[in-house]
Amino acid sequence: MNSDPMAKKKVITKKELDAIERAAKRQAQKEAGALDGRFRPKVVPNKKERAKRKRRKDIDPDEL
User: Which contacts of 10-13 are long-range, i.e. CB under 8 A and separated by 24 or more positions?
Assistant: First the structure.
């Protein structure tokens, strides 16, 4: 630190602390291999969209 008695201490804000925690978490994930493409995130279906009806491929649409 400075030898100046009037020098202010560096205060770590909440925003900076959150950024440090995120960086540490991301580094741990990189070391675990989570960001190398082997893991896929879970996809949550959108409840506002209507579910698509699945059809069998062998049915001729003209017969319906």
Answer: none
